[in-house]
Design a protein that fits this description.
Layout lengths: L1 H14 L2 H7 L1 H30 L3 H5 L2 H47 L11 H27 L7 H19 L5 H23 L7 H26 L8
Length: 245
């Protein structure tokens, strides 16, 4: 727990460095503009497709009765917005992971871990594959669970759990790719997975905070970099166990 809190504190401090402040607004701004332009052209088509899915589902007969029959159009708009908001947020995270993380890793390594040797255990192809897997699993979990959290108490729990998964899966690889060997990456995942998920959950709360969520992707990336490079440094400073040598 202490290493998680230390990473959050270090990321908050590092966020106000001029190099990081220069990156802060761009991921969410680009993501918002991208989805805003898409909505401008495809909003009607999205509503029509959502209506078709609703008519083909068992919920259609239930919604077609009483007050919900009148409110069904507004319900579909609500569902579409609920799909669009996390899409913007996730797109910002992807932009951060793909374009900003290399700059952020170099900055944190130079300022906080200058003696950490680069073993180049990751690759561009590995980063792309990791991002694709993370997004695919997150999207599947999100879509499959949508009926549960729209109409139950899961509305507050499931999005946070899925975001915790996405955060740690999307950023852990890029945080370690340049400095850790493949063997070191496996070792860190073996003993730090629980704390990575905890860090992902705590950072996932930012998606529910208006205004702060606009600036959060860079902070999330910084937190995972500080945590992962800290774990790598500790791993290298720990003497090998004679029993496993």
């Amino acid at each position: 727990m202490s290493s998680v809190l230390a990473a959050l504190r270090a990321a908050l401090k590092g966020l106000f460095h001029p190099k990081m402040l220069a990156l802060v607004i761009w991921p969410m701004l680009i993501a918002s503009l991208t989805w805003g332009i898409a909505a401008l052209f495809f909003w009607g088509s999205w509503l029509e497709a959502l209506g078709s899915l609703l008519q083909a589902s068992p919920a259609e007969q239930w919604i077609a009765r009483g007050f919900l029959a009148v409110a069904s159009h507004y319900l579909m708009i609500f569902v579409l917005v609920m799909l669009l908001v996390p899409a913007i947020y996730v797109t910002a995270l992807i932009i951060t992971a793909v374009f900003a993380m290399p700059l952020m890793v170099n900055h944190v390594a130079a300022t906080r871990f200058p003696l950490l040797e680069c073993k180049q255990g990751g690759s561009v192809a590995g980063s792309v594959a990791n991002a694709f897997i993370a997004i695919a699993i997150y999207a599947l979990l999100w879509v499959v669970s949508l009926p549960l959290w729209l109409f139950s108490a899961f509305a507050l729990i499931l999005p946070l759990l899925w975001m915790a998964y996405l955060n740690q899966r999307l950023f852990r690889y890029d945080a370690l790719a340049e400095h850790a060997s493949r063997e070191e990456f496996v070792q860190i995942m073996a003993h730090a997975t629980g704390r990575l998920y905890l860090l992902g959950i705590l950072l996932g709360l930012l998606q529910f905070v208006p205004i702060l969520n606009f600036f959060s992707p860079i902070y999330i990336g910084l937190a995972f970099i500080h945590f992962c490079l800290g774990e790598l440094q500790q791993l290298r400073q720990t003497p090998p166990n004679p029993a496993t040598a």
